[in-house]
Write a structure and sequence with these properties.
The chain is an alpha+beta fold and 204 residues long. The chain contains 7 helices and 8 strands. It starts with a strand and ends in an 8-residue tail after the last strand.
Length: 204
């Protein structure tokens, strides 16, 4: 597709946080975590900053060269999730740092951790965000395809949770399949756990 992609560094932190905040303001799950628009405007950037810091330290952030889209990836070992945000105290730490009075910040972490597959090493697409004015241009697809090509080369599976029916259909086109029961957030939207097996490479 001709989209230039690079790995983000600490110097990109603020722009990544701003991009994620803008991209997810109207996301169903963000709306569930912060039901009140005022609280979302106040605390949502802090949540995106917490996620960005975790992945900068322990994973990889792919970003388009123009900064209009980014994808947050974590490499998950086969023998558990030690050292990543799904640790028992991880969701509580994020809640304390972002908005201690909002129990949904911790709950979303614990609920997604409970459905996360274990026993096989894989790449976890934690978040992918595209600037609101650039959505529909194929930037998100280009980011994911770049990472999936790397997964195929290395024989690694990939996993994510789709946060809308629209994104689920996109991921299905990219080879992901719903891998377990749908996570219905209490009084909130559904999330679909999705898994993709590496595809064998053909040709030279």
């Amino acid at each position: 597709m001709g989209v230039a992609i690079r790995t983000a560094s600490e110097a990109d932190r603020e722009s990544v946080v701003r991009l994620l905040d803008e991209a997810f303001q109207d996301d169903p799950v963000s709306g569930w975590v912060f039901p009140r628009a005022e609280a979302r405007r106040e605390h949502h950037p802090g949540l995106m900053a917490a996620f960005t810091d975790i992945v900068l330290a322990a994973g990889r952030i792919d970003v388009t060269e123009d900064g209009s889209a980014c994808a947050l990836w974590l490499s998950m070992p086969a023998d558990g999730h030690d050292g990543d945000p799904e640790d028992d105290d991880g969701p509580a730490q994020v809640r304390e740092a972002v908005d201690p009075d909002n129990e949904r910040i911790e709950l979303i972490g614990r609920l997604t951790a409970a459905i996360h597959p274990s026993g096989r090493a894989h790449e976890y697409l934690w978040m992918i965000g595209v600037a609101p004015g650039r959505q529909g241009e194929g930037l998100g697809t280009a980011l994911i395809e770049s990472a999936l090509d790397r997964c195929d080369r290395e024989g690694l599976s990939a996993y994510l949770e789709a946060s809308s029916a629209r994104s689920r259909k996109l991921y299905e086109r990219l080879g992901f399949e719903v891998t377990g029961p749908v996570l219905d957030l209490p009084e909130g939207p559904a999330m679909w756990p999705m898994w993709r097996e590496p595809r064998p490479r053909t040709g030279s």
